[in-house]
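Appendix B, record 7
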Amino acid sequence: MNAFRLACVCAGPAFMGGCFATHTELRQESAVRQSFVSTKPAEALAGCIAEGWAADSGILAITNRTEKGWVIIHQTEPVIFGAADVLPEGGKTTVIFFTNYPAQTKRHVNPIVACL
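Structure tokens (predicted):
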């Protein structure tokens, strides 16, 4: 029985590898990172992506204004499934998507591409 408990305690953190407390941590250590470019305004693009993520999963996506643009966070506390920075640059907008759940990538990328 003690060996089983030890195995659970040691293996537990390995299964929690995708859990990040903040989108900043996810941004720094994400397993998947993809970039996209659009000519749409950043605010409209961020809203469209957030709506797409929520419609697909039923989980509300949080959209916040940042110093550089917008950030969209798709989470159910405490797990962040994915996030995206939406950054205006001149006449174009760059979307940088990141997640630590590779199996969730297509679910997040499809709405991004549809909004571009």
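Remarks on this record: The CA atoms of residues 53 and 108 lie 6 Å apart. Confidence is low (pLDDT under 50) at residues 1-18.
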